Amino acid sequence: xxxxxxxxxxxxxxxxxxxxxxxxxxxxxxxxxxxxxxxxxxxxxxxxxxxxxxxxxxxxxxxxxxxxxxxxxxxxxxxxxxxxxxxxxxxxxxxxxxxxxxxxxxxxxxxxxxxxxxxxxxxxxxxxxxxxxxxxxxxxxxxxxxxxxxxxxxxxxxxxxxxxxxxxxxxxxxxxx
Length: 177
Ligand code: FES
Known about the structure:
Blueprint: H1 6-21, H2 24-35, H3 43-54, H4 59-69, H5 73-82, E1 94-99, H6 102-106, H7 109-120, E2 133-138, E3 150-152, E4 155-157, H8 162-169
Parallel strand pairs: 1-2
Antiparallel strand pairs: 1-3, 3-4
Helix pairs in contact: 1-4, 2-3, 3-4, 4-5, 7-8
The structure holds FE2/S2 (inorganic) cluster (FES).
FE2/S2 (inorganic) cluster binds next to helix 6.
């Protein structure tokens, strides 16, 4: 939940600044908002793009969008919670986002995804019953040069193989073969 306390505001500003300088996906999202001339009425479209890039909309991401579209965070949060097609946060303690964009797909991202699904006993978009692990997919996370890329708990990881991915998530999945 987005907070309105001064502590919350400080954290919010820190999140926006951190995002502005880090992850390439924020650059892609910024370009997308620029294409829409940072118009507030592009909010739903922008949130779709954000979810496509990140797999879900967390607080930092919504603040980033609010900052760039010059909207109150409460408006962004309100829209994101109103529409069922937006996911605010995976329910699991750990999250794995498999990029299924073209560059990753042609380099075997589908095999990586299948391996994780089998190991965890869940499909993309689901969370294990013990709430330890959520698996989501995204469309091009801006790391095509290191495809296939997978994001483990926020860390973009290059050139994933099914074996490498299973090694990364093994402690997160108690279920599966
Ligand atoms: S297609 Fe996966 S990072 Fe671009």
